[in-house]
Amino acid sequence: MDVLISGAGIAGPALAHWLARFGFSPTVVERAPSLRPGGQAVDFRGEAHLSVLQRMGVLDAVRAARTSPRDMVFRDPDGRERARLPASFTGGEVEIRRGDLSRLLHEASASDAEYVFGDWITSLHDDGAGVDVTFARGPSRRFDFVIGADGMRSGVRRLVFPDYRPRFQGYYFAIWDADGDDRDLTCSLGAVTAPGWLMYRSSVPPELMPFEVIAPGVYFDSISQVRMPTVSSGRVTLIGDAGYGSTLGGMGTGLAVVSAYVLAGEMAAGEGAFARYEALIGPYARGCQGNPGPFLAPATRLGMWVRDRMFGLLPKMPMVARMDLRAATAIKLPDYAPVR
After folding, report:
1. φ, ψ at 213 (rounded to 5°)
2. What are phi and psi of 135, to 5 degrees?
3. Which residues of 235-267 are buried (b: 16+ CB within 10 A; e: fewer)?
4. Of 32, 36, 263, 337, which has the most beta carbons under 10 Å away?
5. What spatial distance separates the first Cα and last Cα of the chain, rounded to whole Å?
6. 236-282 pLDDT, tens per residue?
């Protein structure tokens, strides 16, 4: 069966890898002209995340490209240290830059999947037996299934669920390439800044432009959540941030690779795959979702004081520091049998 995947970030290449292992013919279409380099550090934590990477055969490569987590230090504008978030809390068990991970997953799937860069889906017509797809640049094609792995601003989601909008969580953030790996953040009411990173509070949810319009190499977005009654319609479904996004603080990278394994395995199992996929991944994904804005950039001086005291207690309270690990492991992975 031919499967079209929209998006070549993390979820898309991971899904392409598994679909090929299960005997499908995946095609990945990506709007950007090439893989997106750089980006912030992302991490994996817990048995579910690491088990999927091991089953994919990429865990050793991920570990070889890992970064070195450092404490996150919060400072006043005058440079005085206010609080310190331990590296053991921020870095997970394996931390890697997003661009490096995307490259590794692409390399793991490129020989078995067709990649089309610089194009995107403009319309979908699901007639029950297949999906006719038109593209902005390439010729129209027909696929057995279409998967939206195209992030929080998913184009596939807009086509299939045109009335749905992600829930704005009251904060915006920007990430861009910067020299070094400085984890010192300057904090003020409702905002934190660091080299290559910015988060600030706002009550206004503007309509955002594509990131290329803002500035080359800059990723800018709202902190939002995607919570939908269903992420599937007919022969189309959503994966990763497109279906269960939380922008920041939701362990979205680990969720993407776990979801890719489960979706491909359920598709290989046959009829009713999307319903089984949602039943397995939905509760797990919602348990991972969170909003780090009030946690990192409180809007009041009392909130900043509470944050600073809480961070100071984390080294003395390892169970609290590892609360997010419970969400990361709150799924029992099915055993699927790849055909190769």
Report:
1. -75, -30
2. -120, 160
3. bbbbbbbbbbbbbbbbbbbbbbbbbbbbbbbbb
4. 263
5. 16
6. 999 999 999 887 765 789 999 999 999 999 999 999 999 999 999 99
